[in-house]
Amino acid sequence: MRDCGQCGHELEPFFDSTCEPPVAWLCQGCGSVTLEEDLRALSPSARSELATLRAFIAPVPGDGRAPREPQPALGRAQARARALLEGVRTIPVDIERIAAQYGYPVRERPLPPDERGTIARDGDHTVIVINRTRAGITDAERRWIIAEELGHAVLEHSTLVASGAPGTRLTIPEPRRRVEEREARRFAAEVLMPEEKIRGRFAELAPRIDQALGLRQRQAETDEVVTALARMFAVSPTAMRTRLQELDLIR
Length: 251
Description:
- InterPro entries: IrrE_HExxH, Rad_response_metalloprotease.
- This is ImmA/IrrE family metallo-endopeptidase.
- Residues 122-244 form the IrrE N-terminal-like domain.
- There is one protein chain.
- By secondary structure, the chain is α+β, with helices and mostly antiparallel strands.
- It has 3 domains: 11-56, no CATH class; 76-192, Arc Repressor Mutant, subunit A, CATH 1.10.10; 195-246, no CATH class.
- It has 8 helices and 6 strands, in the order E-E-E-H-H-H-E-E-E-H-H-H-H-H.
- Helix 2 (76-84) packs parallel to helix 5, helix 4 packs across helix 5 (176-192) and helix 6 runs antiparallel to helix 7.
Protein backbone atom coordinates (compact mmCIF):
# COMPACT_ATOMS: atom_id res chain seq x y z
CA MET A 1 0.00 0.00 0.00
CA ARG A 2 0.95 3.68 -0.31
CA ASP A 3 0.63 6.61 2.07
CA CYS A 4 -0.61 10.06 1.12
CA GLY A 5 2.19 12.60 0.74
CA GLN A 6 -0.09 15.34 2.07
CA CYS A 7 -1.65 13.86 5.20
CA GLY A 8 0.03 10.46 5.67
CA HIS A 9 -3.25 8.52 5.42
CA GLU A 10 -3.24 5.18 3.63
CA LEU A 11 -4.18 5.46 -0.04
CA GLU A 12 -6.82 3.29 -1.66
CA PRO A 13 -6.23 1.96 -5.20
CA PHE A 14 -8.68 2.82 -7.97
CA PHE A 15 -9.00 0.37 -10.86
CA ASP A 16 -10.26 1.11 -14.36
CA SER A 17 -10.31 -2.64 -15.04
CA THR A 18 -10.24 -5.70 -12.79
CA CYS A 19 -7.44 -7.27 -14.83
CA GLU A 20 -5.00 -4.33 -14.79
CA PRO A 21 -2.96 -2.47 -12.15
CA PRO A 22 -4.52 0.56 -10.41
CA VAL A 23 -4.71 3.75 -12.45
CA ALA A 24 -4.99 6.10 -9.49
CA TRP A 25 -4.74 6.27 -5.70
CA LEU A 26 -7.41 7.91 -3.52
CA CYS A 27 -6.89 9.40 -0.05
CA GLN A 28 -9.84 9.08 2.31
CA GLY A 29 -8.09 11.46 4.69
CA CYS A 30 -7.64 14.65 2.65
CA GLY A 31 -9.55 13.79 -0.53
CA SER A 32 -6.58 13.93 -2.89
CA VAL A 33 -6.32 11.79 -6.03
CA THR A 34 -2.91 10.70 -7.36
CA LEU A 35 -2.65 9.33 -10.90
CA GLU A 36 -0.03 6.80 -11.94
CA GLU A 37 2.87 8.46 -13.82
CA ASP A 38 2.92 6.19 -16.88
CA LEU A 39 -0.83 6.16 -17.15
CA ARG A 40 -2.59 4.96 -20.25
CA ALA A 41 -5.68 6.87 -21.40
CA LEU A 42 -8.56 6.46 -18.99
CA SER A 43 -11.91 5.27 -20.25
CA PRO A 44 -14.75 7.84 -20.16
CA SER A 45 -16.49 5.92 -17.38
CA ALA A 46 -13.30 5.86 -15.29
CA ARG A 47 -12.77 9.60 -15.76
CA SER A 48 -16.35 10.23 -14.69
CA GLU A 49 -16.10 8.02 -11.63
CA LEU A 50 -12.76 9.52 -10.61
CA ALA A 51 -14.29 12.98 -10.75
CA THR A 52 -17.18 11.79 -8.60
CA LEU A 53 -14.81 10.12 -6.15
CA ARG A 54 -12.66 13.20 -5.81
CA ALA A 55 -15.63 15.36 -4.92
CA PHE A 56 -17.23 12.69 -2.77
CA ILE A 57 -14.37 11.75 -0.41
CA ALA A 58 -13.55 15.26 0.77
CA PRO A 59 -12.99 15.31 4.54
CA VAL A 60 -15.79 16.29 6.90
CA PRO A 61 -15.55 20.02 7.65
CA GLY A 62 -14.92 20.90 11.27
CA ASP A 63 -17.31 22.74 13.55
CA GLY A 64 -14.90 25.61 14.16
CA ARG A 65 -13.80 24.40 17.59
CA ALA A 66 -10.23 23.34 18.31
CA PRO A 67 -9.93 19.58 18.86
CA ARG A 68 -9.20 18.40 22.37
CA GLU A 69 -6.12 16.60 21.08
CA PRO A 70 -4.51 15.92 17.68
CA GLN A 71 -6.72 13.62 15.63
CA PRO A 72 -5.59 11.22 12.89
CA ALA A 73 -6.67 11.87 9.33
CA LEU A 74 -9.99 10.10 8.88
CA GLY A 75 -12.28 9.60 5.95
CA ARG A 76 -15.84 10.84 6.15
CA ALA A 77 -17.22 7.39 6.95
CA GLN A 78 -14.83 6.71 9.83
CA ALA A 79 -15.38 10.19 11.28
CA ARG A 80 -19.17 9.83 11.24
CA ALA A 81 -19.00 6.35 12.72
CA ARG A 82 -16.78 7.47 15.57
CA ALA A 83 -19.04 10.43 16.30
CA LEU A 84 -22.04 8.10 16.40
CA LEU A 85 -20.28 5.83 18.91
CA GLU A 86 -19.48 8.63 21.37
CA GLY A 87 -20.46 7.33 24.80
CA VAL A 88 -20.99 3.74 23.64
CA ARG A 89 -18.94 1.42 25.83
CA THR A 90 -20.45 -2.02 25.36
CA ILE A 91 -19.33 -4.68 22.91
CA PRO A 92 -20.94 -5.93 20.77
CA VAL A 93 -22.46 -2.64 19.66
CA ASP A 94 -26.28 -2.68 19.74
CA ILE A 95 -26.55 -1.48 16.16
CA GLU A 96 -30.33 -1.90 15.88
CA ARG A 97 -30.89 0.27 18.93
CA ILE A 98 -28.49 2.91 17.64
CA ALA A 99 -30.25 2.94 14.26
CA ALA A 100 -33.62 3.46 15.97
CA GLN A 101 -32.21 6.23 18.16
CA TYR A 102 -31.03 8.05 15.05
CA GLY A 103 -34.47 7.79 13.50
CA TYR A 104 -34.01 4.72 11.29
CA PRO A 105 -35.99 1.84 12.80
CA VAL A 106 -35.46 -1.63 11.36
CA ARG A 107 -38.27 -3.48 9.58
CA GLU A 108 -38.45 -6.86 7.86
CA ARG A 109 -40.19 -7.00 4.48
CA PRO A 110 -40.00 -8.94 1.23
CA LEU A 111 -37.35 -7.67 -1.19
CA PRO A 112 -35.95 -9.05 -4.46
CA PRO A 113 -34.03 -12.31 -3.82
CA ASP A 114 -30.64 -10.76 -4.64
CA GLU A 115 -31.01 -7.97 -2.06
CA ARG A 116 -30.25 -8.33 1.64
CA GLY A 117 -31.50 -4.94 2.73
CA THR A 118 -32.23 -1.38 1.68
CA ILE A 119 -33.51 2.00 2.83
CA ALA A 120 -37.20 2.65 2.20
CA ARG A 121 -39.98 5.12 2.87
CA ASP A 122 -42.71 4.10 5.29
CA GLY A 123 -45.22 6.92 5.12
CA ASP A 124 -43.44 9.98 6.48
CA HIS A 125 -40.57 7.96 7.92
CA THR A 126 -37.40 6.40 6.55
CA VAL A 127 -36.69 2.84 7.66
CA ILE A 128 -33.99 0.23 7.23
CA VAL A 129 -35.46 -2.87 5.62
CA ILE A 130 -34.13 -6.41 6.00
CA ASN A 131 -35.19 -8.91 3.33
CA ARG A 132 -37.31 -11.39 5.28
CA THR A 133 -37.69 -13.71 2.29
CA ARG A 134 -33.94 -14.22 1.89
CA ALA A 135 -32.99 -17.50 3.53
CA GLY A 136 -29.95 -17.99 5.69
CA ILE A 137 -29.32 -14.45 6.97
CA THR A 138 -27.30 -14.94 10.15
CA ASP A 139 -27.37 -12.60 13.15
CA ALA A 140 -23.92 -11.35 12.15
CA GLU A 141 -25.06 -10.66 8.58
CA ARG A 142 -28.20 -8.93 9.86
CA ARG A 143 -26.08 -6.63 12.01
CA TRP A 144 -23.83 -5.83 9.07
CA ILE A 145 -26.81 -5.03 6.83
CA ILE A 146 -28.22 -2.65 9.44
CA ALA A 147 -24.85 -0.95 9.92
CA GLU A 148 -24.28 -0.57 6.19
CA GLU A 149 -27.74 0.82 5.51
CA LEU A 150 -27.42 3.16 8.51
CA GLY A 151 -24.20 4.34 6.91
CA HIS A 152 -26.06 5.18 3.70
CA ALA A 153 -28.58 7.15 5.77
CA VAL A 154 -26.30 9.18 8.05
CA LEU A 155 -23.84 9.85 5.22
CA GLU A 156 -26.78 11.21 3.22
CA HIS A 157 -26.23 8.97 0.24
CA SER A 158 -28.53 9.48 -2.75
CA THR A 159 -31.72 11.51 -2.87
CA LEU A 160 -34.55 10.28 -0.69
CA VAL A 161 -37.60 10.05 -2.91
CA ALA A 162 -40.80 11.05 -1.13
CA SER A 163 -43.61 8.57 -1.65
CA GLY A 164 -46.96 7.90 -0.08
CA ALA A 165 -46.67 4.18 -0.73
CA PRO A 166 -45.29 2.30 2.30
CA GLY A 167 -42.20 0.29 1.50
CA THR A 168 -41.20 2.22 -1.61
CA ARG A 169 -37.50 1.55 -2.13
CA LEU A 170 -35.03 4.40 -2.49
CA THR A 171 -32.59 4.09 -5.38
CA ILE A 172 -28.99 5.29 -5.52
CA PRO A 173 -28.14 6.96 -8.84
CA GLU A 174 -25.08 5.95 -10.87
CA PRO A 175 -22.15 6.55 -10.98
CA ARG A 176 -22.20 7.25 -7.24
CA ARG A 177 -23.47 3.79 -6.30
CA ARG A 178 -20.03 2.16 -6.18
CA VAL A 179 -18.58 5.10 -4.27
CA GLU A 180 -21.42 5.09 -1.75
CA GLU A 181 -21.29 1.33 -1.26
CA ARG A 182 -17.58 1.55 -0.51
CA GLU A 183 -18.13 4.36 1.98
CA ALA A 184 -21.05 2.56 3.66
CA ARG A 185 -18.89 -0.54 4.13
CA ARG A 186 -16.18 1.57 5.77
CA PHE A 187 -18.80 3.04 8.07
CA ALA A 188 -20.18 -0.39 8.98
CA ALA A 189 -16.73 -1.75 9.78
CA GLU A 190 -15.92 1.19 12.05
CA VAL A 191 -19.27 1.02 13.86
CA LEU A 192 -19.33 -2.73 14.44
CA MET A 193 -15.58 -3.11 14.95
CA PRO A 194 -14.31 0.18 16.42
CA GLU A 195 -10.58 0.50 15.84
CA GLU A 196 -9.67 1.34 19.43
CA LYS A 197 -11.58 -1.61 20.85
CA ILE A 198 -10.32 -3.99 18.17
CA ARG A 199 -6.73 -3.05 18.87
CA GLY A 200 -7.25 -3.45 22.61
CA ARG A 201 -8.87 -6.88 22.40
CA PHE A 202 -6.41 -8.07 19.77
CA ALA A 203 -3.49 -7.09 22.02
CA GLU A 204 -4.90 -9.43 24.68
CA LEU A 205 -4.97 -12.38 22.27
CA ALA A 206 -1.94 -11.61 20.11
CA PRO A 207 0.58 -13.47 22.35
CA ARG A 208 -1.00 -16.72 21.18
CA ILE A 209 0.05 -15.89 17.63
CA ASP A 210 3.47 -14.55 18.60
CA GLN A 211 4.30 -17.71 20.59
CA ALA A 212 3.24 -20.11 17.83
CA LEU A 213 5.94 -22.40 16.45
CA GLY A 214 5.99 -22.72 12.69
CA LEU A 215 3.81 -21.33 9.93
CA ARG A 216 1.04 -23.93 10.32
CA GLN A 217 0.59 -23.35 14.06
CA ARG A 218 0.77 -19.60 13.57
CA GLN A 219 -2.00 -19.77 10.97
CA ALA A 220 -4.10 -21.97 13.26
CA GLU A 221 -3.67 -19.55 16.17
CA THR A 222 -4.49 -16.62 13.90
CA ASP A 223 -7.68 -18.35 12.78
CA GLU A 224 -8.69 -18.95 16.41
CA VAL A 225 -8.04 -15.32 17.32
CA VAL A 226 -10.12 -14.17 14.34
CA THR A 227 -12.96 -16.48 15.37
CA ALA A 228 -12.80 -15.37 19.00
CA LEU A 229 -12.90 -11.70 18.07
CA ALA A 230 -15.73 -12.30 15.59
CA ARG A 231 -17.82 -13.84 18.39
CA MET A 232 -16.87 -11.01 20.75
CA PHE A 233 -17.97 -8.30 18.31
CA ALA A 234 -20.86 -10.34 16.82
CA VAL A 235 -19.64 -10.16 13.24
CA SER A 236 -18.69 -12.83 10.73
CA PRO A 237 -15.15 -14.27 10.78
CA THR A 238 -14.71 -12.96 7.23
CA ALA A 239 -15.60 -9.42 8.28
CA MET A 240 -13.29 -9.64 11.29
CA ARG A 241 -10.38 -10.98 9.26
CA THR A 242 -10.79 -8.16 6.74
CA ARG A 243 -10.89 -5.60 9.54
CA LEU A 244 -7.74 -6.97 11.19
CA GLN A 245 -5.95 -6.91 7.84
CA GLU A 246 -7.06 -3.32 7.22
CA LEU A 247 -5.56 -2.36 10.59
CA ASP A 248 -2.33 -4.25 9.77
CA LEU A 249 -2.81 -6.54 12.78
CA ILE A 250 -2.65 -9.73 10.73
CA ARG A 251 -1.59 -10.61 7.20
